[in-house]
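This week, work through this protein record:
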Amino acid sequence: MSSNLEAKKQVVEEIKEKIQNSKSVVFVDYKTLTVAEVSALRNKFREANVEYKVYKNTLLRKAFNDLGVTAFDEDLNGPTATAFCPDETTAAKIFAEAVKAMPEKIIPKSAYVDGAYVGKSGLKALAEMPSKEELLAKMLGSMQAPIANFAGVLSNMLRGVVVALNAIAEKKA
């Protein structure tokens, strides 16, 4: 067996491992990006703990096919940048920002989120969704609001009782 074939098999195994360890994998078509633009994009991904890579489409397709996923066969054509993300939304959001900044250079293709294929329109919706942490913070904030309001009411009632008791004490004195 040739060393080239062995190297490709290793890359396919690497891709499969990254897919399995990621909550989302996002694909975009990139055209005529300058070195500076690619570097800036890579830095944004790095800061967000997202891995940005460019693999050969045939190797990506083989990795997905080995995992039993064939939905990406048509999407994996032309130049494809891939982002392996530890959460569901971060990579889609970063790519959405890049699309707004460079609409003619970056074109969304699709994504693989929690074991499911997400098309172009779903990818846009995914980018607009709040992250899991944002949703948890909102939920905790809404749960905390009634308790804080109740504590405020009790505090005002106690303050009223103290004021009334002080007024009575002053009248007696």
Notes: The chain has two domains: 3-129, 130-173.
